[in-house]
Amino acid sequence: MLSKKQLREQGIRALKKLANHPALKAKKEQQILTLLFASQQWKTSDTIAVTKALAFEFDTEKVIQRALLQGKKVVVPKSLPERKLAFYEVDEDTVYQRTQFGVEEPISNLIVTKEEIELIVVPGLVFSSKGYRIGFGGGYYDRYLADYQGRTCSLVFAEQLNNEWTNEPLDVAVERIYTDSYKMKEATQ
User: Measuring CA to CA, how many Å separate 189 from each of 41, 134, 166, 169?
Assistant: First the structure.
């Protein structure tokens, strides 16, 4: 069984390989977005939390644009000391700054509380069929989700699915995985 570090590296390699085929990546993203936008999770959520993706990850720009077009409040995270996250409201005019990790974070003072967020689109590199995920290793999302009461989902390419690992006690599973894989549509806990 591979370590989380090895799985993380494998996940990054798989995503970068897919990113080298932009037409295929775009097609897969569209299949997954169709599922997300048709879901009750999406339709019944007025405040959506989503990260600005790195170039090789699932492109979240379409999620942000669709939410804003539909009049939803969009919130994007900033990383804080002690591996914590805070989410800030953004719009079409928001300016972003790139962190040392290469992630774009909003230059905004419009902080949104955890209780106001109805749906968090949780990023990750590797996902199990039960909705557990391996991210970049900081634990930011697991800490944030530990007492979060709203809905969660992830947008996952088939290449990211892997059940050959065991989640740890502090790992928090997402409720729903939207994927282009026909093997798995709903994470079960």
Answer: 17, 16, 14, 14
Nearest-angstrom CA–CA distance, 186 and 4: 23
What pLDDT is stored for residue 182 in this prediction? 59
Q: Pairing state of beta strands 96-98 and 104-106?
A: antiparallel
CA 96 to chain centre: 18
Residue 103 structure tokens? 């992630």
E strand segments, 23-70: 47-49
Are the beta carbons of 77 and 86 closer than 8 angstroms? yes
Average pLDDT over residues 13-25: 95
Read out DSSP for 74-88? EEEEEEEGGGEEEEE
Give the Cβ contact number of residue 71 at 10 Å: 7
- The gap between the terminal CA atoms of the chain, to the nearest Å, is 22
- pLDDT score recorded for residue 101: 80
Instruction: Enter the pTM of the model.
Output: 0.92
* Six token digits for residue 18: 């897919």
- The residue among 131, 132, 129 whose CA lies nearest residue 171 is 132
> 76 in helix, strand or coil?
strand
Question: Is 77 in contact with 136 (CB distance < 8 Å)?
Answer: no
Question: Above pLDDT 70, what percent of the chain?
Answer: 96
